[in-house]
Design a protein that fits this description.
Aminopeptidase; 7 helices; 6 strands; single chain; alpha+beta; six-stranded mixed β-sheet; globular
C-alpha cells in the first residue's frame, strides 16, 4: 500500500479541488479501514476516504481519474464505501459536502438528501472543526487559495438511516 499511498497523496496535491493528504495520512486511513480504491488491472481508477466525527461519518475525497469519468466508477466507490461502513456498523449517519453536480447526483441515487448545515448536530460540527483546525492541514487549505471560499458554498448531503 505504501506506493499507492504516495500516488494518492500526489493526486490530492495536484488536483485543485481536493484537500492535500500526506502519504502517512493516506496509509493510516486505509490501515483503519477508512478508504476504498478502485483499479482497472494495475491502473488506479479512483478512491474515496471517510472520517468519523462522533456518531456521524463524512465521505470525502471522492476521486475518479479523468480517463475513467462518466463510466459509473463514482457509484462503485460510494457503493463499496457503504458496504465497508456497513461491515463496520457505521451506516446510520453519513454525510458529504460537494459542489460537483455528478457527486450530488450519485449521493441522491444512494438516498442522501440535500440538507441544511443545521442538520448536523453542534457536537459533530465541533468535532469537524477540531479535526480541520489541525496545524498539519494548513497547507492543504492554503493550497486552495481563493477556492477555499467555494467550501462555504458546498452543499451538505445527509443520509440518516436512524431517522427512518
Amino acid at each position: 500500500m505504501r506506493e499507492e499511498s504516495k500516488i494518492i497523496s500526489e493526486i490530492t496535491k495536484s488536483e485543485s479541488r481536493l484537500l492535500y493528504y500526506l502519504p502517512e495520512e493516506i496509509e493510516r486511513a486505509f490501515a483503519e479501514g477508512r478508504g476504498v480504491v478502485i483499479r482497472d488491472g494495475e491502473k488506479l481508477v479512483g478512491f474515496g476516504l471517510w472520517d468519523f466525527y462522533r456518531d456521524w461519518t463524512e465521505l470525502h475525497t471522492l476521486y475518479i481519474a479523468p480517463e475513467y469519468r462518466g463510466r459509473g466508477y463514482l457509484k462503485k466507490i460510494v457503493a463499496e464505501a457503504a458496504e465497508k461502513l456497513k461491515n463496520q456498523g457505521r451506516t446510520n449517519k453519513l454525510f458529504l459536502f460537494t459542489l460537483a453536480p455528478r457527486v450530488a447526483s450519485v449521493a441522491a441515487a444512494h438516498r442522501f438528501k440535500n440538507a441544511s448545515y443545521f442538520s448536523l448536530p453542534l457536537k459533530t460540527w465541533l468535532a469537524i472543526g477540531k479535526a480541520r483546525a489541525n496545524p498539519k492541514k494548513l497547507f492543504a487549505y492554503f493550497k486552495h487559495g481563493f477556492y477555499i471560499v467555494d467550501a462555504i458554498r458546498a452543499q451538505l448531503w445527509v443520509l440518516d438511516n436512524s431517522a427512518i
